[in-house]
## 1
Amino acid sequence: MTLTQTSGRPLRVAMLAPIAWRVPPRHYGPWERVVSLLTEELVRLGVEVTLFATADSLTTARLSATAPSGYEETPGLDVKVEEALHLSSLFGRAAEFDVIHNHADFLPLSYAGLVSTPTVTTIHGFSGPAILPVYRQMNGRSTYVSISDADRCPELSYAATIYHGLDLSELAFDAHGGESLVFFGRMHGDKGAADAIRIARAAGRPLLLAGIVQDRRYFEEEVEPLLGADIRYLGSVGPQERERLLGGALALLHPIHFDEPFGLSMAEAMACGTPVIAYNRGSVPEVVGSEGGFIVPEGDEAAAVRAVHAAAGFDRRAARARVERLFTVQRMAQEYLKVYQGMLA
C-alpha cells in the first residue's frame, strides 16, 4: 500500500476519537479501543496521524486535545461544550490533512460538509432511527464504512465493511481454558447478563461477569439478586485482566437481545481460543462463524446450555485461527488505507 501522496510526503490523517473515555480506554470504551489500535498501526506503517482525543490519551501519533479527560470519567464536564470544542478544533485545521477519519458518530458530519478535506466515517452502530437523517443528508458526500455487513443501513452507501482488528500480542492463546464461564458486556438488558446467569446455573458452571453498569435498574433488579458464590460480578476490567479471564474460561456467554454491530468481546474471546456461545442477532454469524463457537436462537436457553456442555470438546485452535485470518489490526489498517487511497483517487 502506497503511503505517500504525489508530493512524496507521508499521508496525513486526522483521527477523530470520541471523548467519552481515554484512548486507549483504561477498562470500558470499545470505540476508543479500536481508534487506538488503528492509530498505532497506521503510525507503524509510516502514516502521519494526528489523534484528536482526550488530553490524557496515550499514543505514538501526534495528540491534539481540548478535553482534559473523558466526560464519562470526569464528573462536572459538560458533554455538549466538550464535544463542540473537540470537533471545532479538528475541523478548524481540516486543510492540514489529506483525510479526516471520524469515529465519533453522526455529529461530526455536520462539520464535514463545510470543509474540502474528505471525511470517512466508521459507523460503530446506530443508537436508533432518530440519527439516520444526518447520515442520509451526508450520504455520498462523506464516505461510510460499516463494521459488519449486518450493521448496514439499506438507505446508505458504503465504501467497505471493515471488521475490527485486534493486537494479538495482547491476547495470548490458551489451549486449555478452564471450568468457568465468562460474560463481558454492559449491564443492560440488551446484553443479556441475566440470561447468562440462568444459562450458567442450568449448566452447573460458575460464571464471572465483567462490564460497566449502564442500566442501574436492570442491574439491581435482574442481576444483583442472582449473584452468589458461583456467580460473581467483577465490575469493569482492563486489558490485562480481560486476557486472563477470557483465556481461562470454558466459554464466553453472549446472549444478546439486540442486533450486535460487531461485538469486540466475541473476537477477543476467540483470540484466546475461548468459544463464544451467542444468540443469533446482528453480526454474530459473521464474527463467530462455524469455527468460533456456538450460535443458538435468541432466547433458547436450553440450546445455550447444550452448547456449554459441548464447549469442553471445542477446538480452541480453530477459534484462534479464525481471528488470525479475519480480525487482526494489521488487516484492519490495510483495509482502511485502501479506503483512504480510494477517496483521494
## 2
Amino acid sequence: MSETQVIGDAISTSLLVRTVEPSAGEADQGHTHESACLNCGTPLIGSHCHNCGQTAHVHRTLGAFFHDLLHGVFHFEGKVWRTIPMLVLRPGTLTREYIDGRRASYVSPLALFLFSVFLLFAAINSTAGKAEFAEGDQAKVKAEAIKGLSQAQQPLPALRQKRAAMEAKGEDTDEIDQEIASREKVVAVASRMAGGEHIKSTGFSLLDGVIDEATANPNLVIYKMQSHAYKYSWVLIPISVPFLWLLFPFSRRFHLYDHTVFVTYSLSFMTLLSTTAMVAGALGAPAISGFLMLTPPLHMYRQLRGTYSVSRFGGVLRTAALGIFAFIALLIFAVAIAAETGAG
C-alpha cells in the first residue's frame, strides 16, 4: 500500500468516525474528569500537568484517537501553516527565532525535515515511472563521458613531470604514483564509455558491484537506492554541519547547535522545493519546475543574512561557498548510499 493510500485511509476513517460518533470531541463526551494527573499523580492546575506535561483530560473516543494519529504522524496542526511560509519567505528569521528559544509557534527543524522527506518520497513513488534508457539518454552519457575524459586527461602530463622530478631528487613517489594510477583508471573507463561501450568492469570494486547488480536487475537497484536514501536522509545533517562551521571558524558568537538548526531548516526547504518541482514536472509544467530550481542560492543568501546578521557582501561570499559545500555534502551522501546499496 502506498503512502498516499495510507494518508487517504486515515483521513477517511477519521471522517467516518465523526459521522458515526458526531459528539466525539465535545467537552462532555469521552473525557475523564480527574483532579490528579493519570500519568504521575500530580494534582492538576490548568489544562496540562505542570510536572510531566500530559493533558489534564484524556480523550477516550475513536475520533480523538485518529486525530492524534494525524496530529502525531503527519503534523496536521496550526504550527505547520505558520512555519512553512516563514521557511519560504523569511528563513533567516525563522532560524534565528528557533535558536533564540521562541519556538512555541513553529514546527521543530527535525520534525519538519522528516515530514518533508516523507512528502518527497511519496511524490517520487507517485510520479516516477519505470526507468527507460532511451537513445537520447545514451547520447547524453556519451557526451558527458567525452567531457569527463578530457578533464581527467588534463592533469596527467603535469603529474608525470612532477613524478619524474621527484624521482630525480630521490624523493618518495608512492603518493603521486597512486594518484596517477587512479586517474589512469578513470581515463580508461571514460575512454570506453566515450566509445559507446557498455561498462561491466571499472577497476573499482565498489562501482563494479553496483554496475553488476544494476545490469542484472535495474528496477531493484532503483528501489534499493530510494529505500536507502529515505532511511538515511537524516545523515545529511551531520554531513553538512561541519561545512557550515567552516563559514564561521572559531566564532564565539555561533555554535554547532546554531549551525545544526540552520542546516536542518535549509534541508527541509530544499526537500520541499524538490517535491514541488517534481510535482510540477509531472503535471506538465517544466517551466515552473525549472524556475523553482533556480531559487536555492537566493534562499541560502536570505537565510544566512537573517540567521547570522552578516553583511550583504559577506552573505554573497558565504552563499557561494555554501553552494560548493552543499554539492560536496550531497556527493558524500550519494557515495555512502551507493556503498550501502552495494553492500545490501
## 3
Amino acid sequence: MKIRAAVLVEFGKPLSIEEVELDPPKTGEVLVKLEACGVCHTDLYTASGADPSGYSPCVLGHEGAGVVAEVGPGVKSLAVGDRVVTLFSPECGECIHCKSGKTNICLAIREQQNLGRLPDGTTRLRRNGEELRHFMGTSTFAEYTVMPEIALAKVNPAANPEATCLLACGATTGIAAALYKAEVEPGSTVVVFGAGLVGLGAVVGAKLRGAEHIWIVDPSKERRDFACRVGATDALEGGDDAVQQILDRTDGFGADYTFEATGLVHVMGQAVEAARMGWGLCTVLGVAGKGQKLEIIPRYLITGRRVQGGSFGGARGRTHVPKLVDLYLEGKLPLDEFISHRRPLEAVNDGFELMERHDGIRTVLSFDS
C-alpha cells in the first residue's frame, strides 16, 4: 500500500514528507493505522546525526497511538479494531529477561530492531524501490506502520489517542520511573532535574506514590510553574549551586529520590550528589551525547547513595501501559495538559523547531488526509 511518511533522507537535514510503499504484515506482525504521534527528542537526536547508532534512510517516529487495521498469521493477542500504543521497548514474555522479572529490556527482537529491521531481518518500507529502515521498530511518522505483535500495547478504546501516544515514550518513562523503577515511598522527598515531558512524568508519578516534597529543578520559569501545577511542591532554577540549594532545604542530607531527565552529564552528576547520604536513590533517565561519560566520586556510593538507569522508566510495555491508560481515564494522569502544540504530519519539522526553542512540552502530529 502507498502511505505518506516523514523520511530521514540525510542527517542534519529536514525530514522529507513523501509517498512510500508499505508491505502487509507477515507472521507475528500487525498493521496499525496511526491516529496520533508525539514528536520526541529522540527523533530529533537521530535526525541531527548526533546518535552514533542512527541510520538512514528511514521513517522516524516512535511515540504513536492508533488502531489495528490488519493482523498477520499467528497473531493472537490483537484483532482488527483494537486500539494500541506503539512500543519501542517490546515485551515478549518469553525471553530470559522477560521471565526474570528483574528488567523490562526484552531480548526477543532487539538485535534486528537495532539494525532498523523487523524480526525476520527484512523491512516493510520502500521508497522508489529502495529499502527504508524502521526506526526503533516503530516508524510512526507515517499514516500506517507494520510492527511486531509483541511491540504493541492494547489499551482502552475510550482514551484519546492524542494523550495515549505520549505513553509510548516520554510520559511513561517519567511516570513509570517513579511508580515501578524507583518505587517512591509515601512521605518521601523527591527532586526531579528537568521539566520536559519525562521530568514532568516523574513529578506526576511521585505524586501518585504519595511523596510529601517534590522539587522540580529547571532553568525555565514557565516549565517550573507548569510542574507545580501538575504535582511539584517546590521549584528551583538550578545552576552550578543546585546541589547546595537542595542540601540547604533537606537538613544537609539530600533527597530520598532524585530523577535526572535532561541528558546532560553535569546534571546527572548533580542528581547523584543531591541524593540522600545513607539511602538516596538516583534514577538517570536522560540520554547523554555520543562519547560523554558520567563521573561519580566513589565516596558518594560508599556512603550509601545508589544510582540506576531506567530505559522506558522500567515499564514493561504490554503490562504497564494499559494500566497507565486506565489511570489517565480515571483523571489521575494529566496527559492532555502535556500537549502544547498540534500539527499535521507535513509540519513535523516545525515540531522539531519548537522543541529546539523549548517552546511547550509536546507537539502531537495528526494524520488526517
